[in-house]
Structure prediction request, 546 residues.
Amino acid sequence: MQHWNSREELVKIVKRLVGVPSISGTVRENDMADEIIRIAYEIPYFQKHSENIFSKEIDEDPLNRRAVAALYRGNPDISKTVVLLSHYDVVGIEDYGHLKHLAFSPDEYTEILKKEALPIEVKEDLESGEWLFARGIMDMKAGLALHLGLLSEVSEKNVPVNLLLLSTPDEERNSEGMFAGVQLLVELQKKLGLDYELCICSEPSFAAYPGDRSKYVYLGSVGKLLPLIFCVGKETHVGEPLEGVNASWMAASFTANMELSDAFIEEVGSERNPPPTCLKLEDLKELYNVQTPTSAYVLYNILTLKQTPKEILKKVKEIAIQSSEGIYQKMHRLYASSNPTKQLEDLKPMVFTYSELYEKGIERYGETFKSEVEEIFNKETSVDFDLRKLTVKLAQGISRYFTDLAPFYLIMLAPPYYPHVALEEISERDQKIRKITEDIVSFAEKNYGEKIKIQQYFIGLSDVSYCRLIDGDSIISTLSEEMPLYGRKYDLPLEQIKKLNIPTINLGPYGKDAHKRTERLELSFSLETVPHLLKQLVNTVFEEVK
Prediction:
């Protein structure tokens, strides 16, 4: 068999992978796992070594989805191994509109787009003949194809390196596929004595700012926290709005103070994390009537470079206190003009974290309170249940015990949680990997005329976040206290991740418009240059890293 690590063959593999509609959260992800294994078995090495094909199901997953892996041991006398990490799920296709039946057919979709009204840049890419359009083609079926191509070449040439391809489902939702991947990495480490020197992910380059068209290699990835701020108001008739506090107002006030807040901005060198932004704001009033909403919630996306969950929660609490004060001051001004003797202290929202209110519930109600919380945990068994909605149900259930304290803000963490990861300056191994990366960048410019920039953090979120854990003890402690689903419905394996401690690099293809209907892959750099860079990177790791 001729290896696949050439543009012509890689295009075939990309189209084959894209052709499986592995939308995250659906049973079709299983079809993608099957297809990856079929492709691996077409490589002669794995026909001879079928024992080196592995899979690991997500624990208690109603869809029985699984991470899949293929281990090439070109040098079985050493334990040193490089992990090639990818995800094989994709986001949905509703944005494709009347063309969604072609979303997974790159040739047909690319051709029919030529008849559509599109932005100038998209038109130019279409006319160049150097781009293919389809759902998942850049995020990240092309990266997976590159890994399969590399495996086929090194195995055909008997290159003395050890590579473990690992591909996961569910990355676009909760990354629970990577939780199974972590378990598999730990099992193979123990069973086969593997020593994971480096994880190479091949997510595509993401624009660092609007209009950025640079190509990047990343030495880590941003982290993510999802604070859920549950707002418990004090009900009143709309004709007497000053007799209560509208939960929707509480949510809106918090959002106005929190949105794009520079209190959460971090800078590492020339890189900055994006400011926080609201993912959902909703009141929970089901029917129309003239009573003000008594509960609402806000869900916030916060990306981190170095901040810990404890530090983030402290800032979120400060924003809630600021919002409470703003509500109080506005009501005070209105009352002062109509009823200056009215006492308003009982209408000033208090602020609690989840652990604070839970502890208060145990003190007040003991086992009755604890049992109701347990019942909420155990009630949700449907296939498509959402971890965020379950967190909201927990907030509702707990808050029912504290109507006497209303109004108040309840701050908790909802899944998913992504640790931020980076190369550590105090680690000799990490600094050698940094030097190797710098050499690859020089190699790309010298041999291919490609200018690739080094970034510390991949900004698009990635499963590499689950390869290592910085400030592990602090993170585990905070999540145990403030994320009610941690260790329950959300089995994030932080202790195992902490032990793995694998440094990561992201070197992948170039594309544009991930998660848009104009998602596309550039072919010459992605499928001609990057294969050589990945091969050079792996070879150098085995020569340099001790």
